[in-house]
Specification:
The protein is built from 13 helices and 15 strands. Helix 3 runs antiparallel to helix 4 and helix 12 packs antiparallel against helix 13. The two termini are about 40 Å apart. About 0% of the residues have low confidence. One of its GO terms (molecular function) is prephenate dehydratase activity.
Length: about 375
């Protein structure tokens, strides 16, 4: 074996070129395999249609091509097999983009998200599905739900909670009357930037952002721009769009928004909490099979009597099932009554979880399973 001093730059570059050629060949080999997978899936679907009447073909096509649990398993396996020097998450991100590009060869997917372009929700959609997905901006969370319910988009991505500001009530409320299922989750580290148009840093008269972004950077704004007007808008992407068009307006938004609207960062990392993270949910029309590392979310309306909540939660304690979230919202059907949003580890098809859900259903007014889905792999 040659010592380090015997290795020259030219030979290293030749090695890199050779390895790149191998990677290129393998990528196309994987892509061709993905195309064959699409052919097999289509053939099996057409054969099944001969025996089933009244099949919703658009829903079936969606089930054929995208398997959230399969992708989660691949990413977990990639991280477990990684030996470095690349970090586990770095390798997983690379494989996410490979799977995204290959899936687009099988069936291009459209994913609705809370827009406009440049929002953290769009960044979450790209993180989960990869850059090959067709992302479709919507103006409201309800519009994202409607777009998926109607079949105009295969999936949707909506924010559900922030580590410093808590739950997103509009998302929870939308689930109560929707038939959609939770198909996945995304955790996104939120890095807030103060963005301005090129040359506009000297005359800032107001700062626009979503109300949560304003709250998450309140201390920084108090210290650096105490006398500047703060304006809450529908999203940070909308704030960036406004800042690009209106002189004197700065925006609090993401790197993605800065790229989209041609803005420069006057300051970066202005969030008050360094671990500021937002969690998003992927919504679709189908149930997701178990991946081995899953969560389940339900919404429950309990009887209005003493001990109702204790009895609701007792089966989880008895079975040693970890609760990861519990939240309440007004039921909107009766004054001073509430529904509980409960999230816990496990899949609804697991025998132990199925028994808990059956127990809860028998003692509540309503128990709705919002979905079982893989834990965030990235």
């Amino acid at each position: 074996m040659a010592s380090d001093k015997d290795i020259d730059l030219g030979s290293l570059r030749r090695d890199i070129d050779r390895i790149d050629s191998q990677i290129h060949q393998l990528l196309n080999e994987r892509a061709r395999c993905a195309q064959q997978v699409a052919i097999v899936k289509q053939r099996e679907f057409e054969a099944a249609q001969q025996f089933e009447s009244g099949t919703d073909s658009s829903s079936a096509q969606q089930l054929l091509f995208y398997r959230p649990e399969r992708e989660a398993q691949v990413l977990e396996r990639v991280k477990a097999a990684n030996t470095g020097p690349l970090a586990d998450d770095t390798v997983a991100y690379i494989f996410r983009e490979i799977m995204s590009a290959c899936l687009a060869l099988e069936k291009p997917m459209e994913v609705a998200y809370l827009g406009p372009e440049g929002t953290y929700t769009q960044a979450a959609a790209i993180k989960h599905f990869g850059h090959a997905v067709i992302s479709v901006p919507m103006t409201t969370i309800d519009a994202v739900f409607s777009q998926v319910e109607s079949g105009q988009c295969h999936y949707g991505v909506v924010p559900v909670e922030n580590s410093t500001e808590g739950m997103v009530s509009h998302t929870l409320d939308a689930f109560v009357n929707s038939s959609l299922k939770i198909c996945g989750e995304v955790e996104l580290r939120v890095r807030l930037n103060l963005l301005v148009a090129q040359g506009g840093e000297a005359d800032i008269t107001r700062i626009c952002a979503h109300q949560q972004a304003l709250a998450q950077s309140r201390l920084w704004l108090d210290a650096n721009f105490p006398n500047i007007e703060r304006v809450a808008v529908s999203s940070n992407g909308e704030a960036a769009r406004i800042a690009a068009k209106e002189a004197g307006t700065a925006a609090i938004a993401s790197d993605l928004a800065a790229q989209k609207y041609g803005l420069m960062a006057l300051a970066s990392g202005i969030e008050d909490q360094p671990d500021n993270t937002t969690r998003f949910l992927v919504i679709g029309r189908e149930n997701v099979s178990a991946s081995g590392k899953d969560k389940t979310s339900i919404v429950v309306s309990a009887h209005n009597r003493p001990g109702a909540l204790f009895k609701l939660l007792e089966p989880f304690q008895q079975s040693n099932i970890m609760l990861t979230r519990i939240d309440t919202r007004p039921s909107r059907t009766e004054t001073w009554t509430y529904v509980f949003f409960i999230e816990f580890e496990g899949h609804q098809d697991d025998p132990e979880i199925a028994a808990i859900l059956d127990n809860i259903s028998q003692q509540t007014v309503m128990c709705k399973i919002l979905g079982s889905y893989p834990k965030a792999a990235l």
